[in-house]
Amino acid sequence: MRYVYGLSSALLVGGAAVSLITGQPLGAQVAQNDDAVMERVVPVAGAPASFADLTAQLQPAVVNIATRQRIEVNNNPFAGTPFADLFSRRGGTQPQTREAQSLGSGFIISADGYVVTNNHVVSPDARAKLESITVTLPDGTEYEAELVGADAQSDLAVLKIKSGKAFPFVTFGDSSTARPGDWVVAIGNPFGLNGTVTSGIISAVYRNTGQGGAYDRYIQTDASINRGNSGGPLFDMRGNVIGINNAIFSPSGGSVGIGFAIPSEIAAPIVEQLKAGREIERGYLGVGLAPINEDFAASLGLEKRRGEFVQTVQDDSPAAKAGLKPGDIITKVNGKDVTADQTVSFLVANLEPGAQVPVELLRDGKRLAVNVTLGKRPSEAELRQQTQTFDPDAEEPMAPGSSDGTIEEKLGLQVLGMTPQIARSLGVPPETKGVVIGAVDPNSDAARKGLRRGDIILSANYQDVASVEDLLAQVNAATGEGREAMLLRVQRRTQAPAFIPVRLR
C-alpha cells in the first residue's frame, strides 16, 4: 500500500442548524411529523440491508498476490561514493543477495486467468529481481503466474495465471458515472487476512492528492483500505469494478477513512494495452508546472483553481518549440479546462505522441492560443533526470561518471556529462561543452591542485572533451603512452579557463 502522509484536523461546529433537504433550520423539520421526516431523509435506493449477496458473487474473483524477489545487498563500505567501484576492483567484498517478499491483492478479469493489480505489488524495489508470483484464490488454491505487462506511471500491472482452468472473473464499470455519496465495496487482503470486505461511500470521483504525476487523479472513498489492499477492486453496487485500490492518506500508517483508487476509466484502457503486450505511449509537453493556488491567484488577479503556472520549459521540448515561456498560465488543453482535478499532465498524458493539440494560455494578461505537437513522454527516471539540479557546493557525492572507474582511479575525479540543467546550475551557457567534476578524491593530485566539485573540464591534452567518454579516451591514451600527468583545461564559475597539470596515479 502506498501512503500519502499528512496531518488531519477536526472542525467542531456548534450552534448552527443546517438542512441539506429544504435549506430550512433543523428545528423547523423536527417540528414536523416524524414519519414524514424519515421518508424525506432516507432515499429509496439507500444502503442495502446486507452486502452478503454481492460479496458472494464477487469474492471468488478477488485474489491474493505474493511475490518472491532476489535483492542484491552491497557490502561495500564506500557504497554511494565515487570510489565504490574502485574499492570493489581492489579486492573489496562481493555483493550478496537476500530474498524479499511482497503481498497484495488483485482481481481476475477474464475466464482464462488474466489478473489486474498494482505495479508496486509486483515491482516493489528497483534493485530486486522478480523470481516468482503466486496467485491464491479465496478457496486457498495456489497458482503460479507470469507478469504480462506493467506500467509504473499509472501503477498498473497485468498477470496471467499459468493454468488451463476457467476462472470466475469480474468486469470494469464506468467510473465517470459515479457520484460522491454512492456506496462502494472493497475486497482484498489487508494484513494478510484473506477475503476481507469493507464498505463505504465515495467522497470524490476525481481527487488530486498533490503528489504530482500524470495520474494523480483518484476516486476517494471512506471504505477501509489498509496494507495489503493494494491492487484490489473497488466495486459499485452493480458488481462492476470502478476503481483499483492504490493508496491511503494516513498520519499513522493505518486507515483513517481516506483511501484512493485508480478510476476504471483510466485503468481499463491501460490494462487492455498491457494485456496485448503493447508499450504504453503518452503525450509529452515538457514543462514544469505549479497549481494556481490562492496566493498565485491573488498576485495575478486570477480565479483560483483554474489553470496551471509554467515554472520551467525544457530545452528543445514540444512546449519550447511551440513558444511557451516560463510565466505563462495554461488554461486549456485540447479544448478542456485545466483545473485542480484535471491537470495539464493528466490531459497531455492521455493524448498520443505526435498529436497536434491546441493550448490556450495567459501571458501578460492577454489570452493566446498555440498549437503544440506532442512528444513521447519519457520514463519516470528520465523525467527525474531532466529536473535534477546540480549543487556545486553540496557535499554529498554523486554516482560514478565512467562505466569502468578508470577516471576515478587514474585522476581521482568523479565526473558527469554536461546537461542544460547542470549548465544553468553552474551559471554557464546551456550549450557549454565539457564534463563536470562531481567529486574529488582528497588524496589525489587533482585535490592538491585545487580542483573541486562544479569545475568544468573543457579539454585534456589539448583535445576537446565533450563527454565522459572523450575524457576516458584521453586518460587511456596518456596511460598507454606512459605519461605521468595530463594537462587539463578547467573552467570555474566566474573565472577564466586555466590549464592545470594533474598527475596520474
TrEMBL record:
Enzyme class, UniProt record, top EC level: hydrolase
Reaction(s) this enzyme catalyzes, per UniProt: Acts on substrates that are at least partially unfolded. The cleavage site P1 residue is normally between a pair of hydrophobic residues, such as Val-|-Val
Organism superkingdom: Bacteria
Protein localization: Periplasm
EC number: 3.4.21.107
SUPFAM superfamilies: PDZ domain-like, Trypsin-like serine proteases
Primary location class: periplasm
Active site: H120 (charge relay system), D155 (charge relay system), S230 (charge relay system)
Region (Disordered) residue spans: 379-401
InterPro entries assigned: PDZ, PDZ_sf, Pept_S1C_Do, Peptidase_S1_PA, Peptidase_S1C
Keywords from the UniProt entry: Hydrolase, Periplasm, Protease, Repeat, Serine protease, Signal, Stress response
Pfam families recorded: PDZ (PF00595), PDZ_2 (PF13180), Trypsin_2 (PF13365)
GO molecular function: serine-type endopeptidase activity
Record-annotated PDZ domain positions: 289-347, 402-471
Any one GO biological process: proteolysis
Residue sites binding substrate per the record: H120, D155, G228, N229, S230
Family per record: Belongs to the peptidase S1C family.
PANTHER family: PERIPLASMIC SERINE ENDOPROTEASE DEGP-LIKE-RELATED, SERINE PROTEASE FAMILY S1C HTRA-RELATED
Record protein name field: Probable periplasmic serine endoprotease DegP-like
Protein species of origin: Erythrobacter dokdonensis DSW-74
